[in-house]
Amino acid sequence: MSKTQWSSNVLFVALILPVAKPTTRTRSPCAMNSGGRATLRERDAQLAQAREDLVRIRDEVAVRVRAALNKVERTRQMVAVSQELLATRQEARRVSAQQLKQGTYLRSQADATAAQEFEAQTFLLQSQLEYAQAQDELTAAIGAP
Questions:
Q1: Residue 71 belongs to domain spanning
Q2: pLDDT tens profile 55-79
Q3: Is 70 within 8 Å of 79 (Cβ atoms)?
Q4: Do residues 48 and 100 touch, judged by C-beta distance below 8 A?
Q5: d(CA 1, CA 59)
Q6: pTM of the predicted model over 0.90
Q7: What CA–CA distances, in Å, run from 142 to 23, 55, 71?
Q8: What is the number of domains present in the chain?
C-alpha cells in the first residue's frame, strides 16, 4: 500500500470516527509513584495533542472536500453551457451552409461559422476535461480509491 493511499485512508477513517471523549481512569497504587505519574501526564499530553491534530485534520479535509464539490458543480455547469453553445453553433453552421447554397452567403462567412463551431467543440472538450479533473480531485479529497 503506497504512502498516499495509506494517508488518504487514514484521513477518510478520521472523518468517519467520532472524536473520543476523555475518560476517567482508575490508577492502580503501583502507578501512583512519581515515575508513573510523569508517564501518565506525558501520555495524557500526547493524547490531547492527538485529539487536537485530529480536529485540525478533519477541518482541513472538510475544507478540501467542500472546495472540490464546488469545483465539480462549477465545471458541470460549464459542460452544460458548452453543450448549449455547441448546439447553437451547429445550427448556425447548418443555416450558413443552406444560405451558401442559395447564394445569399459568402464562402468566407460560411468558413467563419464553421470555425466558430470548431471553437465550440474545443470549449466543450475543455469543459469535459476540467469536469473529469474536478471529479478526480473530489475522489482524492474524500480519500476514496
A1: 33-142
A2: 999 999 999 999 999 999 999 999 9
A3: no
A4: no
A5: 25
A6: no
A7: 30, 16, 14
A8: 1
